[in-house]
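Lecture notes, unit on protein representations.

Consider one protein chain, 92 amino acids long.
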Amino acid sequence: MDAMLFLIVYVVLNVIAFAMYVWDKHKAKTDQWRTKESTLLIAALLGPWGAVAGMKIARHKTLKLKFKLVYVFLVLHIIVLAYLVYSGMLAL
């Protein structure tokens, strides 16, 4: 995959994850229908940087044990990205 296309898709996924966490916090404050936790975790799997930022900025889901997985997803992304760059499969 072209590095620029990969970067664009990756940034978009992280922006979406960020928006989902912030929007769910807004809905929690205004007593509206909420996003399922499994959906938020899937978003975090695809865009962990955005999910972590959304959790920290909105102070959302930071105390729930299952959302510690978001940090595991972030570490996995760092490992995979480092491997892709080191192996030359992704030239940034």
